[in-house]
Write a structure and sequence with these properties.
mainly alpha
Length: 117
Amino acid sequence: MLEHAWDALRDFEHKTPKNPAYTLLKLRTEFPDADGEELAAKLGAKLGKAVRADAGRQMLRRARLRFAEALVDEVACGLADPAPASVAEELANLGLLEHVRDFLPADWARKGQLAAE
């Protein structure tokens, strides 16, 4: 499921080349201790242009949201009952809830939508 979520994020980046969501999130996984300035510099080097730290932080938040959406969608597709409560239970059972928890608003179980960008 994680692999499919990564694939979805990579596909999103290919379709929207001005949004380096996949590249940035992969950099974060490769350099988990990098601060905002360091991560922005690494992204800038990959993109061939300067990236401000504040812009990098916002892009990272959006990348994480897209990844969470892809992960939730992937889990939901594999369930007979894709209701939010069932999806949350399956995410917990798989140990994946921690990857999306920050994007689940209080009314998620009712609406089934992640937090907006």
